[in-house]
Amino acid sequence: MDAITAQRLSLVHPKLRLIITEVIAELAAQGVDVRVTQGLRTVEQQDALYAQGRTAPGHIVTNARGGYSAHNFGIAVDCVPGVVGKKPWGPDWDVAHYSKMQDSCRFKGLVCGCDWKGDLGDEDHFQLAGYPVTPDDAMREVLAKYGMQAVWNMMFCMKTSDAGIKFIEKNEGLRLVVYLDAGKPCIGYGHDLLPDEVYPNGITMATAQLLLDKDLGQWENAVNACNLPLTQSQFDVLVDFTHNLGVGALHQLLSHGLDQVPTQLERWDHVGGAENAGLLFRRKAEAAMWQEKAL
Q1: Quick one: which of 157, 155, 158, 159 has its CA closest to 74?
Q2: How far is CA 78 from the centre of its chain?
Q3: What is the number of structural domains in the chain?
């Protein structure tokens, strides 16, 4: 990756940065040299670009005013294949190379401008899924009042996958009556009982599922608040870990950096100062899931 691309990626959403970095590496191995030609563009820069060909010299290059482009929110990039080995860098207009780049981005879940119809078509534009194609009033309001990070926190919230939920259910096991876990009363799939939660006759499987859904919501919020570039499998691992050990342990785990998570996980396998075989098995399963490549 060249320095210009690295600098532009440093300013966009971490999830987008991760995906584009993977695309660049994959295509480089196939002999295609991809450069990010546009990343974050401020609202002021967008307005200046919009004026070009209208009230300022030059040709019209955009129909989006400031605040109406995904670039203004750090959730979009423009990428162009380059001629491998050419100094200085120059674009490669080979249609096959464009197709490889677009296919790779699409496979990894990005929205591709080349798929838009009519005047919206944009062959080199890629943005995170889950957002309006054109940013809406809510996004513009949050950006103006609180900044781009607040937009990211508001808009980009991962959820535990079906596979992740099954992973947690398997790790916790299901108990329909109250039991003690490390001295704390629990029920269902490892749900810690609150003071006002009393189940003298136990619970049904449906109630156990509702309690798990409630727990997962708060753990998902805790992981999302860390604003990390995670794959779906990695997100599921952190939710499982937090459900087991809590938000404080999550922050301690992440304090060593994402690349150290698989190694650090196995340090959390003790109960009362002694290694616990069940926790060690769970940590090893988490470490294996962490290193899965699927987004």
Answers
A1: 155
A2: 19
A3: 2
Is residue 84 over pLDDT 80?
A: no
The answer on pLDDT for 236 being more than 50 is: yes
The answer to whether residue 295 sits within a structural domain is no
Structure tokens at 52: 């070009």
Give yes or no for a contact between 205 and 212, defined as CB atoms under 8 angstroms apart. no
66 token code pair: 């400031």
Nearest to 178 by CA among 211, 135, 141, 214: 211
**Residue reference for tokens 């103006």:** 144
- Owning domain of residue 248: 162-290
Q: How many helices (H) and strands (E) does the chain have?
A: 12, 9
Contact 107, 100 (CB under 8 A): no
Which among 172, 220, 275, 292 is annotated as catalytic?
172
The per-residue pLDDT for range 210-222, each reduced to its tens digit, is: 999 999 998 998 8
With tokens 């096991």, the residue in question is 173
Tell me, what's the pLDDT at 121? 55
Angstrom distance (rounded) from CA 158 to CA 45: 30
Q: Which of 94, 124, 155 is the last residue of a domain?
A: 155
pLDDT score of 294 more than 60: no
Residues in contact with 5: Cβ distance below 8 Å, sequence separation at least 6, in sequence order: 24, 34, 35, 36
Return phi, psi of residue 63, to 5°. -105, 5
C-alpha to C-alpha distance for 32 and 80, rounded to whole angstroms: 10
Q: Find where tokens 């937090």 sit.
A: 242
Q: Any catalytic annotation for residue 123?
A: no
- What pTM was estimated for this model as a whole? 0.55
Write down the pLDDT at residue 295.
Answer: 33
195 and 85 in a single domain? The answer is no
Of 30, 116, 127, the closest CA to residue 73 belongs to 127
Compute the distance between CA of residue 123 and CA of residue 236 in angstroms, rounded to an integer: 33
- Residues 73 and 197 both lie in one domain: no
